[in-house]
Structure formats: C-alpha cells, structure tokens
Amino acid sequence: MLNVRRAVRDKRLTQKIVRIVSTETVDQKGRPEQSYQRSTVRAIVTVAAQGDIERYVDATLYHKAILVTSEMIFYPDNLTGQPDIIVYHNENYVVLGVDDYRDFGYTRAVCGITDFQTAASGGNYTARSSDGV
Q1: Which of 95, 106, 111, 126 is nearest to 18 (CA)?
Q2: d(Cα 118, Cα 98) in Å, to the nearest integer?
Q3: Torsion region of 53: left, alpha or beta (phi above 0 gives left; psi -120 to 50 gives alpha)
Q4: Rounded distance between C-alpha atoms, residue 50 and residue 30, angstroms
Q5: What pLDDT does 17 receive?
Q6: Mean of all residue pLDDT scores within the chain
Q7: What is the mean pLDDT of residues 12-17?
Q8: φ, ψ (nearest 5 deg) of residue 62
C-alpha cells in the first residue's frame, strides 16, 4: 500500500510549485487593497481525471486540470473570497476544491485553468526562474 505521507516528503517524487494567496485589506481612507503572497511549496502534481473536475461548478470551462498533493493546505476560497493560485509550468491554475486528508498527513487540491484565465491573479503572475519552477 502506498504511504502518501512519505511520498509527499520524498524529494524524488515532488517538485516545486508556487502558491499565491490573495489577501484584501483596507487602507486608511477605507479603500480595499489587494495584496499577494507568494510561497514555494513541494508537491506531487499529476493530471486530473475528467471525473475529478466534473464535481465542480462550471467544470466545462476548464480545459486543463491538475491534482496537487502536498502537506500544505490549499484553499478554494479564503476570507476574501479569492481562491489560491498555483503556478505550475508558468501557467496559473485556480484551486477549485480540496480533499482534506490531514489525518493521513496530506491534502489534495483540484486545480483548473481556462482559456481566459486571469481570474484572481489579474494575469500578472508567472513563475520566475528564481522560484525554481
């Protein structure tokens, strides 16, 4: 039986991806300010099966989908209502849903990308070579 907890810690099976978390604050004049926090995460990335993506609303919009398995917790929407963005091979994938297996030491996020993908990132984020992605 595959021990996923050990697999997500094994550098031979994982790769570096970039996670972008959006946060919204209010400035001194009461205007909303959007900020983005980037972090590099090790994860197992695989192609999502059609059944994985069909569970979500507007599944037909997503022409590419990946599964990201990691010890990191990903959020389909955080307190600001913006989902996490996963940058993988210089493409921005939106976290659509998360299967929580924290009792076993990992989570699995289903991420999708559309033809008009600029949602939540404004299209401004791509991986830099310094991120190692």
Answers
A1: 126
A2: 21
A3: alpha
A4: 44
A5: 94
A6: 78
A7: 91
A8: -95, 110
Terminal Cα distance for the chain, rounded: 30
* Residues listed for the chain: 133
Tokens of 6: 């050990």
Residue 130 has pLDDT above 70, yes or no: no
Q: Catalogue all structural domains in the chain, each as residue range(s) with its CATH number.
A: 4-24+32-120 (2.40.10)
CB 104 within 8 Å of CB 8: no
Amino acid at 96: L
**How far is the CA of 79 from the CAs of 39, 82, 83, in angstroms?**
18, 8, 9
DSSP per-residue codes, 53-110: HTTSTTGGG-SEEEEEEESSPP-SS-TTSPPPEEEETTEEEEEEEEEEEGGGTEEEEE
